[in-house]
């Protein structure tokens, strides 16, 4: 598909967006965010953090309690969903089981009173665009999960949206297909030139897809930035723990985050330089992962029980571990370079 086939994207901005259900704590609490036109944004966070509610307010499926939603500086907060310039792809794909792929895609045009020949021509063109033209007359039950997703995408594109909203679109797929389909989503986004806003609970999925990652918790945005920035420099203890791959440590310098692959593990007999970035630990878990070994560690003197969990995790390259192996119960020393640690907020 050439660049001339791209659909016009739009910059989306939410300002002071709030949603309350009843009199409790807000589900979304006065958040502000700008998503540049033509970019791929992922909202992620634990269950109940407000990410899906935010998406539904942008789509017009949930009303706002306060705040504004702008699409290229046009306030769409009070507009019906059909008039916003957005389209939604749901987690379940929500295809009509009694209609063919072609009629599913053409359905919105049928509701607008457009004739069968014209709407089928447009629907067929969209199905070709997502490599589903040959299966246009199959019903959803005759399609795989990935094929159903392509039909759902074509149906969303029928309304010519400027922003496509995706509510956990990969969660219903098996792990292998999920990886395949997320690559296709990224390719479609680039080819179509649309702004995508994608809700997910998967850190891996968000890092693979996003230009902009937005980490939410308790209705608040805890950090927004590129995947590289958020993974390497989480702003807070919550973000570091949620993203994984980090240890949160108390040091004389304060609470810091250090990536699991940036900590050196050595036996006590080996001399290492002293400093605030040194600790001692006991090996409580050893997991062989192929190219690396994952070590679980706890402070010396910590009582071990069947339910004990590791306080620290360290990734050791396979060759390094083979050259200097350790065993369960061994006491070791840990060290990291000063530049590997960064201060975390509470």
Tell me the name of the CATH homologous superfamily of the largest domain.
P-loop containing nucleotide triphosphate hydrolases
Portion of residues in helices? 25-40%
Count of extended strands: 18
**What is the makeup of the main sheet?**
6 strands, mixed
As a whole number of angstroms, the C-alpha radius of gyration is 24 Å
Shape: elongated
Averaging pLDDT over every residue, what do you get? 89
* CATH-assigned fold name of the largest domain: Rossmann fold
How many structural domains can be distinguished in the coordinates?
A: 2
Distance between the termini: 48 Å
Strand content: 25-35%
List low-confidence stretches.
none
The top level CATH class name of the largest domain: Alpha Beta
Strand order of the largest sheet: 6-7-8-3-9-10
Structural class of the secondary structure composition?
A: alpha+beta
String of helices and strands: EEEHEEEHHHEHEHEEHHEEEEEEHEE
Helix count equals 9
The CATH architecture term of the largest domain is 3-Layer(aba) Sandwich
